[in-house]
Amino acid sequence: MVHDIKDAMLLNSAVGTIFNELEKLRKSSKENQEIFRKRWIWELIQNASDCCRDGEKIDIEIKFDGHSKLSFGHNGKGFKEENLWSMVTQISSKQSDDKTTGQFGTGFITTTLLSPKITIESFLENDNQSFDLYLDRTGQTRKEIRDSIRKNIDLIEQVLTTDDHFQERNTTSFIYNLEYSDNKEKSIEAINYGIESLISHIVYLLSFNREINSIKYNGNKFEVIQRSKISSLSNTTIVTVLEGDTGNEQKVLNLNFPEGTIAVPLLKKSDCTCFGEISKDVARLFCSFPLIGSENYPFPVVLNSNKFNVEIDRDGIFESDSVNVCIVEEAMSQYKRILSHFSNQPIRDTFNLCKFDRQQSSEYKKQLVSELDSIIMNEKLIKTNSKKLLPIKDSEGEIQIFVPNSRMEKYKESVWKLISRIPNINVPEYQYIDGWRSVINNDITLKSISDKEFKNKTIQELADWLGEIDYIDWLNNYYQLLNDLLDKGFEEYYIPNYSGVFRQSNELILTENIMPELIEIWTTINKSRFKRIVLSEIIVPEKFKEIMIKKSNEKIAENISDHIYSLLSKETQENRTIETNVLFDKVLKLFVQKPDECEKLFPSIYKERTKLRSKQFSEQLNHFGDVISEKNISIEDLNAIVSNEKFLSEFLDFDGEITEEMKKQFQHISKQSYYSKKKVDELIERSTKNVFTKLTKNVNYVVPSTIEKWQEKKLSDTIFKATKNDKEIYIVIRPSDEDKIIFYEDKELNVLDTNNYELWTDNGENVKLVTLGDILKTTKISVIPLRNLY
Q: What is the largest CA-CA distance in the chain?
């Protein structure tokens, strides 16, 4: 009676457990069912490991025909009586601390998602008596499950009580018939995934778990063939796993400490053994077996400890558990030891020691990320383009390493070469940039350079940033590389204008094939146009040209003509401003230099160009004509005269007859060499800077804040505007080296002919305002001829 009650209670308990677990599986979300399916292999491997006899190792063999039959077997212990009851009733004996054979709790029942009908071929551990057990979990009701369990109970009782001797057996196999699967396609997919997961983890599994001798899948055998110690780093071993079919060897470095082991894969690269990258589908935490679900755990290497307190689904560890926290802290200390040991060996791809998922949600994991980054960022790990070994962060805690990035693999090296030329930018050596990218997380691109170093900046600021390298050459390479890389988006990039200020490329005017003289006249009319013209030294690539504003010689000439007609309608020769005279002089000079082109570009103005002459010029021309007539000068002699400005000036004041000797002098033509002009330009530039500095310190004068802005509004290279005591004046600047001033331009004389000018000189040491009194005293002139003055 009592025995019957116990049997009934055991049966009811088993039915309730199995029915509830099956209901959970059937009614769980599709996502959870996917997870359960994919864990089948680890449930079976863990159960197999539990069957390892003391002092021995087990071999595991998995077979799958690809469509209907999966077999999982091992050569470990057979079943004891309690194991059989656990198998049938799903009531686990894992509550005991003792390691027992074949644990079959609710974890095992999840494998029924592959197939609800499982055949178990095994033997009794005490006498090797073989038996076959059929688990049927197809039942949808408690009664159907009860009937299936009762059949298994009867079979177990028969096996345990029979005296007949069956064929001996020393292996155990679990056979899943997929024809009974609720979703055969999903089961096949899960089996393939499980095998892939096994292959991904196998080098770690076999290195951590000393109880498994080998694992074979469809005849392909994996086993540890060597464990060799590293003498330079204590408690460290390199484990080699051989794959039988291919002969390939997988290696992993294990550093052992009392609480566990940390491991990182190794690869053979050229003549050096390097650290490999841990695959994204590999669990970062092991408890003898991988905790599937810990793939994103924030740890740079794989951490194994059989002391972990794991979550019930074996997908992680309890974060707040004091034992777990201590294990992780010690593992971090050991990790730092590995990192420091290999820090001066970048050829070993040490970046793979630093990769882990930094995006975490819990406070504990965020803190763990912070502590790990503190270790990684301050270790000298990066070999840079300058051959230095630097940490990722500088002494101020700022990231000092930049990783060049390109949109296209084809141009990746070209981008690296361009950026690595920048002297104040530290970048990893080319072969390491991809490895360090996710660790450093500080990419530098051609776009980021444009946004940070060009936008709202000047060419001088860029030159300062680039240091001693040729910044124009660097810029031209930069734009050509963009041209090669991109098909669109060029308007987002910046190009320096004529004033040396970076502006968006689609705001600039393309001046290619336009006469330089036209550009000079056009910008004289409106100096703000300098802001829209590309700096002349920049070579604009073809794709940039497509988005830039186009101007032709004809269009610019039309703009100039309209402006000239506007001035002629407002001003006469008598009241013409200095600015207008400067403009007209430039136009007339162009007409002389290129008459054929100008006649076509300025058809109306060219014919009426005499209107552009100043009153003073017209008067001088009339006087000159009178002299030519009076002296009876030939055209040949006239050409010689106008080629010699000094003699021409003397000739106009000469009253006597022209001798042959004088005519010979006409033939001397003064030619200014490139080098002498360069010297004069340098002197003018020096004097301009010195005078500007002097005026900025004088409270009576108001000039722009920078010399560049002052030069934007200049009338010529030596004539500038200023305000003195609230009155606008012209500043004429001339070098006074060798104790003399030489005037070269009519524009200077035109300005000096007004009543609102000042003449300033500079000899490299002294800056001085020169007055008429200074000139009279210096030259000791006491008589001034006034001929032709009135």
A: 161
